[in-house]
Amino acid sequence: MTYEHGTIDSTLAAMAGDEPAVIQDLRRAFVDGMTRAMEAMHMADDAREWREAALRMKGLAASVNALPLMTLAAQAAEREGSDAQLLDRIGDQVARL
């Protein structure tokens, strides 16, 4: 599963218009949100907390058309609890942002 810079960039451009500084701010906010969701998943004490963090992540990914991340977050939300390997795959995708 690969990350497509163009898809997110075009979505952010559609949101912000031709304002590179605004696009950069939106990208930074997106990455920060994804990082916080990953941290919440790492710290989840039970299946409910894991699922809530995964659903937040899925929503964030959907908001910028990040389909690979949205797919991984959806898979995480379907788990009955934490899944370290899946979280590592998500982390790899976020690192490519």
Automatic annotation (TrEMBL):
InterPro entries: HPT_dom_sf. GO terms for biological process: phosphorelay signal transduction system. It comes from the Bacteria. This is Hpt domain-containing protein. The lineage of its organism: Bacteria, Pseudomonadati, Pseudomonadota, Alphaproteobacteria, Sphingomonadales.
